[in-house]
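Troubleshooting entry. The earlier prediction with zinc ion gave an output that would not parse, so I re-checked the input for stray whitespace and re-submitted. Clean input:
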Amino acid sequence: MAGDKKAVIVVDMLNDFITGALGFDRGREAVEPIGKLLTAARSHGIDVIYTNDAHLPGIDKELELWGDHALAGTEGAQVIPELAPQEGDYVIPKRRYSGFFQTGLHLLLEELGVGTIILTGVHTHMCVRHTASDAFNWGYRIEVPREATNAFTEENYLAGLKELKDVYGAVITSVDEIIAGLAL
Ligand code: ZN
């Protein structure tokens, strides 16, 4: 596996997750830090990859647990306007929590020469965590800027961060620290 490059992965920063069907205040707190990170990443030639829920109604099991959200092709499944993908970014639709499950994410990362993923988005203990799990299994290094992810509750958020660190070896850091590293 894997080259030396880093890429930023933005998980599920979609209308339905932030302002829509499953919208939550804590999610909105991650918007500005992610925006700052994406601007810096793009200016340093770091690839930006969105992994976005695009569920099939009546089929995807997650919908039984959470109700309909981020249905493929709907407004709710679009990235929020503040973080809209830009030219040169990559968008990977997914139908499960993990951005890797039955998607082209691993192939894309290999082709881009990426060995370290900077994981951002929601929810820390669900889609971010499951994406980290698969990333770990494929051998990627993981960095998580703590203010660029969030979850429904403080408890979910802290438990998510702890698991990312303890189980998947993620380096828990900050947007500013990551940006300082990109400038080196
Ligand atoms: Zn979902």
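This one parsed fine. The longest helix spans residues 154-168.
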